[in-house]
């Protein structure tokens, strides 16, 4: 084993393979957690603004700083109201979800309809079909329409995402019908002190070598060829390189999920938490906003999906925020 003594642990995790570029800038949600309470949306769409410093009274059980004022990094996410543009019903076939029908609202603003190529006016007949086939449905989702323009972005085309409605199917359908064509605010979906999951596309770094991508050991100075390479890629016949061997390639711009980010603040006006001069590469937050404890993947202005937690920790009380908005 030479200099490695007893063991040679792997550099880089195989859990994220393949490390390819994300399919889209607004990631789809692959899993929705079970929910049995009153019907509500299990997700929301926001736009990352930047980082700030949050001072609050630590109320984490068994924490060394319990009861003391602590300073933590927080991420400000602009969350303008979304429009419920449609409803999608899903049935179950061979253990997988299959779309039953899709209903589009007829009350979407005209300037937005022109930017949705899949929009078809079928509200009346679509709702009737969903109502008649309610016993067949396994899941009810809404088509959430987020407007980046309200968040201060130059993008005019809206972002569309299917968001599941938690609760029994019949109540979820009634909730979807009551919200069809209307706005939903972040305060109707999440509350301060809750834990949520964050799904986003990480910061892209382009094509990277094997040392930067997998942190493999740099070869000794007397190496015959290059030093920034893998020592051996395997001796197989016929020639074949297994997927477990670190190789150069795409680094960053990956779809990633981070679990259990605590909501510290839900603000009706994010301007009060914007540093003087605005956030770098974003500007001033002039809409509703949330501040999450910790960091979030991606660059400023990137769409972020906020989802109900799939691995929720033990609930704790909402922390008392002393001050927020100090720029980092």
Spell out the blueprint of helices and strands.
Layout: E1 40-41, E2 43-57, E3 69-78, E4 82-93, E5 96-104, H1 110-113, H2 123-132, E6 137-146, E7 159-166, H3 169-179, E8 183-184, E9 195-201, E10 207-208, H4 210-214, E11 249-250, E12 255-267, E13 289-293, E14 303-307, E15 320-327
Antiparallel strand pairs: 1-7, 2-3, 2-14, 2-15, 3-13, 4-5, 4-6, 4-8, 6-7, 9-12, 9-14, 10-11, 12-13
* Rg result: 24 Å
Name given to the CATH architecture of the largest domain? Beta Barrel
Order of helical and strand elements: EEEEEHHEEHEEEHEEEEE
CATH class of the largest domain: Mainly Beta
What's the overall average pLDDT, rounded? Answer: 91
* Annotation, overall tally of beta strands: 15
Bulk shape: globular
Biggest pleated sheet: 6 strands, antiparallel
Structural class: mainly beta
Describe the structure.
This protein folds into two domains: 15-81 and 185-218 and 244-328, Elongation Factor Tu (Ef-tu), domain 3 (Beta Barrel); 82-184, Ribosomal Protein L3, Chain: B, domain 2 (2-Layer Sandwich). It is globular. With 328 residues, the protein is mainly beta. Helices cover 9% and strands 34% of the residues. It has helices at 110-113, 123-132, 169-179, 210-214, and strands spanning 40-41, 43-57, 69-78, 82-93, 96-104, 137-146, 159-166, 183-184, 195-201, 207-208, 249-250, 255-267, 289-293, 303-307, 320-327. The protein has four helices and 15 strands.
Key features?
single chain, mainly beta, Elongation Factor Tu (Ef-tu), domain 3, Ribosomal Protein L3, Chain: B, domain 2, six-stranded antiparallel sheet, 4 helices, globular
